[in-house]
Amino acid sequence: MQHITSLDAGLELFKTLGSEVRIEIIKLLLENKQMNMNELASCLNITNGALTNHIKKLESCGVITTSNESTGHGNQKLCSLRLDKILIDLDVSDAFQNVYNVDLKVGHYSDYKVYPTCGLASSTALIGEVDDTRYFAHPDRYNAEILWFTKGYIEYEIPNFIPFSQKITQIMISVELSSEAPGINSVWPSDISFYLNDVCIGMWTSPGDFGDVKGIFTPDWWFPNWNQYGLLKLLVINKNGTFIDGLQISNINIYDFNLDYNSKIKFRMAVNDDAKHVGGLTIFGSSFGNYGQDIKVSINYTPITES
Fold this sequence. Notes:
The protein is mainly beta. Helices cover 13% and strands 38% of the residues. It is built from 4 helices and 19 strands. The strands form 4 sheets. Strands 6, 8, 9, 11, 14, 15, 16, 18 and 19 form a 9-stranded antiparallel sheet that branches. The relative contact order is 0.18.
């Protein structure tokens, strides 16, 4: 998912999407997951040279990604979609102008309670043994770039270094997630609940555990029958409520927490025992999945004023 916070910031993307041919390319990749250049050119009835220009523009805006595949006739570019959603904010009030950004590594959690199937891995190797919850306390877990479990929770303490005498007006969290099925299963729903300071602020149902194609950033040593990538989700809590990808999931708002520059902020992701779909959770870091990022947090703030 790409989050555009102003019309000016999205101008290049809007120009790129202002082409019938490029829209058709996106439609074809939605239907077929991956296609090489020859297949796309044939479906669109255009030359490879003309197609190359369109592919370059889509790739430069992060809409698609390309990789090389070896064929009997040399190397061929393989194209796939990188974005699943585009979120555009047209109204950014003055209260949201001041922002503190921080990235959390997947392994930098502060608390956990997990059940097998479960495990962690760095960018180069598994951390300990899979399905052994003891390794979630191993010192090497700080290097984890992916983790997974069937039920339970993982909790992070969000660093709060906004300036003195400021109150928090919005928290935005971006993270790549999927379910956790035995092996892989793209139809494996899981109800993932989100908590802020022990209060459930909403729930999102992950549709599955994706392994139909290799994740763009997933390392070569990773097992082909394990989770390959997830969906990039944008969780926002502000004065109007709590939202996932722009859709409201609860009425709980940021002012229910009275957060300021002194506040401790705990963020938990959980698959609860009593959920309708207990389908697990996988969290992807920058070395796995399709988005090349860790858990991104943005905190908006404004001066505290007397009532």
